[in-house]
Amino acid sequence: MNAAKHFEKNPVTAQLLDRQDPLKEFRKEFHIPKRNNKEVIYFCGNSLGLQPKITSSKIDHELKKWAQKGVEGHFDEDPWVSHHHKGKTAMAHLVGAKTHEVVAMNNLTTNLHLLLASFYQPEGNRKKMIIEKGAFPSDYFAITSHMKQKGIAPDDHLIEITPDKNGYFSTEKICRTILDAGDALALVMLPGIQYYSGQFLDLKSITHAAHKVGAYAGFDLAHAAGNIPMTLHKDQVDFAAWCSYKYLNSGPGNVSGVFIHETHGNNSNFPRLAGWWGQNESIRFKMENNFDPIPGIDGWMLSNANIISSVAHLASLDMFEKANIHELRKKSVLLTGYLEYLLVNNASIKPHINILTPKKESERGCQLSLYFYDQGRLAFDHLTKNGVVLDWREPNVIRVAPVPMYNTFDEVEKFVGLLAQVFD
Fold this sequence. Notes:
By secondary structure, the protein is of the alpha/beta class. 36% of the residues lie in helices and 14% in strands.
């Protein structure tokens, strides 16, 4: 049952929902920012997740090891040289992959460039790429720069799918655009969750449509990883990349995760930009200039892990393993459903907003994007002044993201009450 309809039939208080929350203890594991000695209502995990309390001790451990052992830390009983293996199981659980299909390395845009270097190989008539109109700038810049570098004019060969007036991308329209492009299409690269509207796209259907015409399908999962469980391997997605500083709570600008399906990862001849750390581990330190890539995604690694930042990522991944992404998703559906229910049933707020994010729970994560017909900036400033942290996106949208790992139903209720004050 839709969560909002559930609340209509079974009215409950926020306090009761919080008492019944099986994940409520996880909030205590995070540093909640304060303003005027009072915890803020932090609904901005879609931009930067909060810091787990365990993070500093894990970083301190590695700093102490560096101080005490120096270079020998690379090969001791807990070697830095194989540090990138540690988070694979947790990442695989989050995105529905095999462990040899995922790795944490570099940052998101760097990884998008690496993936495009492998998967955008225009040849003959097959030159076109599909993205969404209004794509996040880093995606657009990466895509168009690769086209230009290969002598392909974006004006002629970049297909931008236009959403409807509410910012919605229908699966039918996306797949029809793919099929219409046919054998001229080389690559589809779309977001898992569209950053502005919060819409979760149908990865499986899009991938299958791309494969039907002989193209690859890849996704930027910056707003999906740690937010919605996925099944990338089963859905036969070719590649994906995501950051770890939003829902994955790994720290500002921290390491990116990457997925490459084993069909390509186990092909040693698949095109790639190679680096020393992708070299066969048994011969890596022989320093021979004959590239023999590690099977799986590790063959795309360029260099050794940044240990200090990586342990912050591992601290958060450990918490996701304990909480379980499927249990987090259950709470998220209720938490965001409760937010939606309170918003649409508030007579003061309802005439002033349009919720851009789809109503169907299968088509959204925890974020609701609120489009304001009027007084949007006034509302944002009022909320900020009263201790609510969220973000503004032009034109006229406040993105509200109650995160199941650390946000509460009581916070949702208080947020709606503060918003109503603007229009009372």
